Amino acid sequence: MVLGGDGRFYNREAIQIILRMAVANGIAKLFIGQNGILSTPAASYLIRKLRADGGIILSASHNPGGPEADFGIKFNSSNGGPANTELSDKFYHAACEITEYKITEFNDIDLSTLGDERIGNTEISIVDSVAEYCSLMEHLFDFDRIHNLFNSGAFHIRFDAMHAVTGPYAKEIFEKKLGANHGSVVRAQPLEDFGGGHPDPNPMYASELYAHMFAPDAPDFGAASDGDGDRNMIMGRQLMVSPGDSLAIIAANASRIPGYREGITGIARSMPTSRAVDRVAAYMGIECFETPTGWKYFGNLLDNRMITFCGEESFGTGSDHLREKDGIWAVLFWLNILAERQQSVRDIVHQHWRAFGRHYYCRHDYEGVSLQQGEDVLAHLSEQLPQLSGKKVEGHTILSGDNFCYLDPVDNSLSENQGLRIVLDNEIRIIYRLSGTSTEGATLRVYLERFEPEPEKQHLDTQVALADVAKISRTLAKINELTGLNEPTLIV
Ligand code: MG
Fold first, then answer.
1. Is the model's pLDDT at 85 over the cut of 90?
2. Quick check: is 61 catalytic?
């Protein structure tokens, strides 16, 4: 098995405990990231490369860390991907029935020194996950070409590791291997509490990077990743590339990248993600799959070579190189595109919109509503679904409304109630989902999208372009009446 985590509070202590339990249970071999550090994508890669039976990743992803904050334990299967629903259910039931556990006592293992050690019947290897991951990236991307771009002296980046797991990976790859200026990677030291920050790469929590990229002396390219290194935010000068656009641009430029020159088999996106990539897939004559929210739904498609790329609106992008979304990979993909095309991020995005049209897109979160209020909104909408088609709202006509369900084309498993989806004229789409039930209540997520084919109308502010759609979303679902909220609490 593979074992490691994102470096948050309790990472090292948990690893020592898991080691003692692994030895007591006779696990044959454990591969542990040096210093206990293992990004989620690196763990996925190691599981696959080493043909491990699975891996334990200690992380609460993009959520804050520290003595009073979040901690999490994830299990990834032998394909390198998140445990599927069936396996998760088995874990849950087994955990409910536990009456005893085995543990062997021995002194803490030194996690800082590379090498092998044997305790009982278990062989323990401390591995350099940065070097392993880096070799995979060198295989996929044209490092020489990207190095030349940095060597020109006229190209500068800022990568914000947010004091989370990608720091050591980013320092090695961007600064040492590719020649970015020393100091291009900021907040590179993984800290147990992420420096008190919220390691989630979006305009709100990566506000420092955001401010730098909108400053007059902004670098050419900016990016950030989250707590465990699987999310990414891509920025150009005075510009953020939306995750949906990023996925579409990655797919459209695949033939320029060494690891993907052979062609791509298909693409998948989660249902609420912008349909920008659908247009690229249609142009390329390949299939575009629409899956429920959650990376595990891409696993079967990837394992059966039905897709090459996949992505989610929540800043997740990935490919068949492993079975998780991958933040550093997405950044390298963009750097390789920039090195090949010798254009700015802005020019590349604008050219893409001219060629394929622009999908204005954003997510409105209504946070801290009670579970009851959230369910009331969805129930109110669900009741209307059968009569929605043909109805007029705020000057637009509703074409269809449904509750998204997904039939997995590989194992035929059915996932129901995956979000209410309303499609209107002018390629407007509104999706409602309820998520994040916790002590602080639930979050009603509303995803807004509108297609704009006319180049001269593609440069509006997103919120301005979607003002009508936002109004329709509130009217249709009676959000104000049922939750008491007149405006979203978070716009992403
Ligand atoms: Mg994450």
1. no
2. yes
